[in-house]
Structure prediction request, 119 residues.
Amino acid sequence: MRESQPPSELDALPEQERRASKRVSLVTQIRTVVEGQPQTLVGYSKNISSGGIFIETETPAEKGTELVLRFKLQPQGEILEARAVVTYRLGDEGMGLRFVDLPESVRQAIEAFVQEQEG
Prediction:
């Protein structure tokens, strides 16, 4: 269940209209490092867009936490690295992240993946 947040005009829109970027399914292992902490957390992505990613994990970080992510878009693909901030938590199911200062090469790789998955 989502943490309670004050309602906004966006809440009245269907989910697809609230998103700035098209999301597609992506199930891959994600390694996350919280800025300034030594441990690496492991979770699995559920979906991705050029704007962000949802990670399924039993231990989601707090809203506003900045993370460094390492993941692959394809099983044989290169490991991508991106910075992101937690925008919401879904109980102990996972967290929604917004990419921050996404390198152009990573943004292009994600956009190409999204386009490819849309068919």
